[in-house]
């Protein structure tokens, strides 16, 4: 497949620069993946789409203030680091600008020495590996020195950093927000639970893939970067029971989808586990772990457009995007949402009752 097949025309003025005042007042395009039929609603109407016994799966990762501006120790050159992935202890994978100035052994200082970082290894396309040195608690220092790593298409200043966090964000470690979840309010989640819908939390720390465009011409040649995920036994049991009882599993966001599908592809059911995933979902890849998906509108020719096309069909998705443009929906991280409705078939294999702690 050609990457160009997933392109679409998007006027720049439809790229949302700021979040709307009320999270759940954003618009919601509801797509039937079988017929391609479309309805226009608001996000708070999602409660009408969910049924008692369904399970809503959310990614509870929390965005860290991962963007740091410092100085190279020897030359005082300004260096920008974006923390992408915690490798082990105080070692991090970082995206560096300008990367050409940083070599193994170079040291970068931040906040007049409150935090320092030594480059330990070089990676591809601007990636460098650093060990950080500090006194105290690392994440508290980040709160002082770092800033929120907003996507490059957002040019407005974010007045409230909490608007780039979901209301249920808990597990520190993401370089970007799982943006489909930004539409939920605490009150809306409470009403969903009161309706009899189960809510489950998993974790995937969003990393480099969010910031990297697809640079190859053929879809199949693209290589995804790995991201850390985790699922508890309680959630695994709930998801298996949801599927067994004939109810729907609704993923909130592409990150939740990638986590669920990673586990399901390996074990043909859900298991308590943690690990790293570089799963790449595109048309032709069968998605078996979920029945429906709540998602935002994604960048042209991105892996995320390919993922939703794998679930709802390329033509359905591109048509929905054309209609969203015509109806002036707001796009990308602070934009409006789409709900890909489930079919009624949830009959997947649930006979294996063994559980694993690692996957």
Would you kindly provide a written description of the structure presented here, covering whatever features stand out?
By secondary structure, the chain is α/β, with parallel strands linked by helices. The chain contains 7 helices and 17 strands. The longest helix is centred in the last third of the chain and has 14 residues, at 254-267. It is globular. The strands form 3 sheets. A 9-stranded mixed sheet has the order 2-1-17-16-14-3-12-13-15. It has a 6-stranded antiparallel beta barrel with strand order 5-6-7-10-9-8. Strands 4-11 form a two-stranded parallel sheet.
Identify the CATH architecture of the largest domain.
3-Layer(aba) Sandwich
Order of helices and strands: EEHEEEEEEEEHEHEEHEHEEHHE
Q: What oligomeric state is this? A: single chain
If you consult CATH, what is the topology of the largest domain? Answer: QueA-like
Q: So what's the overall shape? A: globular
Total tally of structural domains: 2
State the secondary-structure class. Answer: alpha/beta
Q: Could you give the distance between the termini?
A: 30 Å
Can you tell me the CATH superfamily of the largest domain?
Answer: QueA-like
The radius of gyration computed from the alpha-carbon positions, rounded to a whole number of angstroms, is 21 Å
The biggest beta sheet, please? 9 strands, mixed
């Amino acid at each position: 497949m050609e990457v160009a097949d997933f392109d679409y025309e998007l006027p720049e003025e439809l790229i949302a620069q700021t979040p709307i005042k009320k999270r759940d007042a954003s618009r919601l395009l509801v797509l039937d993946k079988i017929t391609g039929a479309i309805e226009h609603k608001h996000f708070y109407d999602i409660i009408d789409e969910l049924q008692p016994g369904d399970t809503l799966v959310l990614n509870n990762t929390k965005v860290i203030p991962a963007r740091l501006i410092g100085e190279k120790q020897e030359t005082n050159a300004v260096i920008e680091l974006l923390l992408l992935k915690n490798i082990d202890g105080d070692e991090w994978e970082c995206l560096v600008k300008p990367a050409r100035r940083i070599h193994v052994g170079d040291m970068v200082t931040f906040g007049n020495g409150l935090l320092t970082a030594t480059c330990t290894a070089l990676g591809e396309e601007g990636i460098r590996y650093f060990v950080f040195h500090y006194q105290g608690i690392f994440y508290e220092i980040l709160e002082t020195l770092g800033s929120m790593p907003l996507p490059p298409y957002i040019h407005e200043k974010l007045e409230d950093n909490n608007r780039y966090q979901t209301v249920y964000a808990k597990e520190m470690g993401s370089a970007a927000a799982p943006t489909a979840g930004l539409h939920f309010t605490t009150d809306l989640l409470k009403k969903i639970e009161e309706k009899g819908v189960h809510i489950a939390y998993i974790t995937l720390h969003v990393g480099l893939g969010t910031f990297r465009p697809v640079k190859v011409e053929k879809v199949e040649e693209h290589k995804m970067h790995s991201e850390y995920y985790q699922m508890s036994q309680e959630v695994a049991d709930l998801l298996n029971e949801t599927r067994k009882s004939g109810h729907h599993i609704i993923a909130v966001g592409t990150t939740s989808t990638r986590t669920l599908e990673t586990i399901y592809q390996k074990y043909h059911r859900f298991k308590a586990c943690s690990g790293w995933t570089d799963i790449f979902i595109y048309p032709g890849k069968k998605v078996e772990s979920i029945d429906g998906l709540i998602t935002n509108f994604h960048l042209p020719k991105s892996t995320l457009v390919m993922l939703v096309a794998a679930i709802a069909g390329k033509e359905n998705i591109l048509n929905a995007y054309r209609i969203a443009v015509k109806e002036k929906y707001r796009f990308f991280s602070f934009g409006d949402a789409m709900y890909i409705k489930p079919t009624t078939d949830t009959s997947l294999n649930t006979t294996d009752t063994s559980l694993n702690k690692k996957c």
